[in-house]
Structures are given as C-alpha cells and as structure tokens.
Amino acid sequence: MENELKPFWSKVFKFDWKFGLFLILILCIPRFILVLNANETANYGYIGLIMVISAILPFVFLSKLGRRKIGIIKPTNYRWLIIAFVIGFAFSILLYFLGEIFYGKSYENWYYYIGESYNIPNEIDQQSKLIMFGIMALTGMIFSPIGEELFFRGIVHSSFANSVGDNKASIIDSAVFALVHISHFGLIFINKKWQFLMLPTIIWVISMFFVSILFYRCRKKSHSILGAILCHSAFNLGMIYCIFYQLG
User: Where are the alpha helices (DSSP H) in the chain?
Assistant: First the structure.
C-alpha cells in the first residue's frame, strides 16, 4: 500500500498529527527567532531561506501520493482561482482600513510597522517608487505564499487532517500561522528596545487566523494548493500596495 511519506521517512514517521507537530517545531520556532532578529538587525536574508525550506519540505518528505494529497495537483475549479485572488486582495484592504481607524500612522498599526522594514525613502520620486513597489510586490507574491502555503495549508494541514479531520486541522494550522506572525508584528523593536503591543497583537493574530481559514477554503474550493497560494499572493499584493501608496 502506497504511503504519503517517502520510504525512508515512513520508517521513522507516520503521516499524522505527530509528524505535523514535528514539522511545526523544527521550522516555526527557528523562523520566529530569525524574524525577530531580522527586525532588530534589518538583515532579512535568512527569512527568504526559511521560505525556500518551507517550499521544499513537501518534496523532501512526501511521495507522489503525499504531494497529491496536500494539493500539489492541477485545479479542477478555475473560477475559484479568480475568486481566491479577489478574496485575498479584499481582505488585505479591509485590514488596512482597520489599522487606519484604530491606530493611524503609528507603530501600533501593523502595516505601518511592517512597512518600516521596506526602507522606502521619504524623497523618492514616483517612477522610482513604482519600480521599488514592483520589486517588493513581485517577491512578496512569490516567496512567502508558495513557501507558507505548501507548509501550512499543505504538509502540516494534511498531516493533522489524517488524525483529526480537515476542519480541526484547518483550525490548528491557522492558529500556528497566526501565532508565528507575532514575530512580524506584535512583539516589535522600536527605539532600540522591544515592546509587546497587547491589543494590536490580539487584533493582528485574529486577522491572521481568519485569513488563514480563507487560504484553506480557497484550496478546498479550487481542489488545489494553488487556490491558497493565489489568495495569499493577492493578500500580500494588497498589503504592499497599502504600505507604498496609502501609508507612504
């Protein structure tokens, strides 16, 4: 009987919640620490490496059956790829307005804090700004959506789903995704010291949880991990647009 894991790994693991937990521990804890370090040092090189590792893990551990099971297949509902993109972009714009209403242009606004890491010059001309936006948007729409979706909505979700079912697995992978993003906003480095923003963090984590649920729904409706990737890509595009042209 074919196994979701490659023959070598199937001797060590079962494709279940324990394997999913193992993946979370070996990737998410180092990622959390590296993102915090990047926020302090402004060296984000290792974050790209984490995304690459996240993307290749399914190909390291999973057989062809396993890769199909996590959604690395051709979509069967192309309409939902378009819907996924619209949903992701719309949610990011909604999150922008939420931040503006509650916190304006302050470090308690998640997009404002994240945008500081982009180092957009104050006196940048419109053409240079457009080029910079294009580069940031392109990288933001490729690396983290592919890496995070193959990891969270892909291999982690499916391993938990084998044990507890899709609905509970979606809650688990979304909760982990949301908590990991506290390193991006919530625990912030300002004026050479760390601060924890309680209420903004709660809003941010809840938002990341719900957008993760949307990513999963788009995967399920499109019958492919591509639905989740496109929804995530559009969310990042909307966020980067807001940082460049609404907050800037």
Answer: 7-10, 17-41, 45-61, 64-69, 79-103, 110-116, 126-148, 157-164, 166-180, 198-222, 225-245
